User: What shape does this take?
Amino acid sequence: MHGCRLAAILAASLLLSACFVSKVPLFGPAEADYPVPDGARFAAFKLDDNGSRASAPPRHLTVTRKGADYLYTFDGEEPVAGLLDDIGGGDYIALIRDSEKPGEAVYGLLRQKGEGWLRFAPECSDFIRVAERHGESAGTFNITRSGNDCAFSSYDDLKRALAAAARYTAPDTEYVRE
Assistant: This one.
């Protein structure tokens, strides 16, 4: 996982393994959207680099609400709290609260696909390499490198980077409604 913070928690949960982070959440409950019904269950399939399902069996995710937060729970593990923000076209920025660093957040992009979702969550260094192949750089998105993470201080920069990640990379996880 190239040293990303939360790697163990997020890899285990398959929710967000991306290393797009911020020191403070870049959006909050007032801007959040709630497209997933309380109690929804999903099978989470890991996807290969081409966006095809890998041979590993799926994990199972239950999404519940607690106040303004969604709680994402995989196979009875500890829930992870977060929010979704609709950015149009069926795309949502997913914010996960960093339980090891209170106040900090980790991000990815979820794309609605019928009753399911596709997740785009590239590693920071992978994203920068792909962006450079398309004529963009870390500076295009005002990314500050923080160890192996891509750190953002602006919602608009994060949104542009996640939209580029969805254009330039394949999804890494598919969530199928059960």
